[in-house]
Amino acid sequence: MSNAPDLLTHLGGVPVASASRYAGWWGRKHWFVDFDNGTAGGGQGKRMSKPQKNPATAISDAAAWDVIYIRPRTPDVAGGDPQAITPATAANWSIPNTKYGLSIIGTGLGILPSQAAYQTRLQGESTVTGTAPMTVLAPYVCLENLSFKRGGSTGVPLVDLSSVSAAYAFASSVHRCQFHMGNGTGAGSAALHIGSHWYAAITANHFERCGVAIGLTSLLANPAGVKIVGNTFNQVTGANYGDIVSGATACNRLEISDNTFEQADPTLGTTVYIYMAGSANTGIVKNNYFGTATLVTATIMTLGGLVESGSKCAKGFLTS
Amino acid sequence: MIQEAVVDIIIKKSQQRGETRSRVEKELRKEGWGSSLTDEQIDKCEYAERVIKEHFGADKSFVESRIIDKVK
Fold first, then answer.
1. Which residues of A touch B6 (CB under 8 A)?
2. At what angle do helices B39-56 and B21-30 cross, to 10 degrees?
3. How many domains does chain A have?
4. Which of A53, A62, A115, A119 could lock onto A38 through a cystine, CB 3.0 to 4.6 A?
């Protein structure tokens, strides 16, 4: 049951990640956010019948190991982009280190763009630049069933699994989320950035038309034990700089498995699906599917020490 | 198989630490909030919650991944 791709780190959408103890999936107190029908102000949202309006207030009110449920907005029927939840003030969302174990769970199961009416869509504030719509600086955090989109920030992550000195973050899970059109072109500005966030579990997500989908960097230390499993990558030729890009000095015990790379081999930036800087990386790339006819591993991946096993392209198993 | 993982769980609503995931999920659906788990996932959650409760008691319990793996 805990095997990839669906449940490597989850029990039915519930994280049981590689933390020594993980309470995030059952949590402590519950908070309920309904942007269209909720009431703003501290202390709101303790019941579904009296929901909070703003996610930032819910994050502020929540304590470690709490769970925040966020309802999808009323579906847009007028065309254009689906309605999104935006911050109430000129500041994007951030989960500080003191909120360890916080779970933020959308109550819509839609993950693809075609399912926009059934997903909780979080969009960065329109005047904020330079920060991701969601930054995670705490360990054991779970983000689940959410869709992330840029606001005023461009060239930065949509979700930044980061870390701060003296309070390292680690072992967070990102499960069944959509990353919509992140336009960063490097590891540090990838739609989902993992900066020294050890044991991050990135499972069953969809990356839609991003410049770089997942990036890893040695912000404070080399990333370790990161699992990237069961995701789909749907990027656009001519705007894709690599799907998984590491600029870290080295990644230790990295697993990239059971992912589907739906598009052609990237033509910009790294010009490969998976790029690992340096040669001291350790881990495995296995059972992935690539939308290319190219059979030679080295043509579509720069592995930097990772071992490839059992991945396929359109014509069969890759060759060394 | 992942490495041994341990989780805290919450079984009873009356306890300070909250409710189980499956129970909240049913309330979400009842109140028209949508859903955060599929039906199959709810079944798996309920099974795990029941097994965990039987193994470790009702409050602040822990489960190893070898038990999670028994969920079909």
1. 19-22
2. 140
3. 1
4. A53
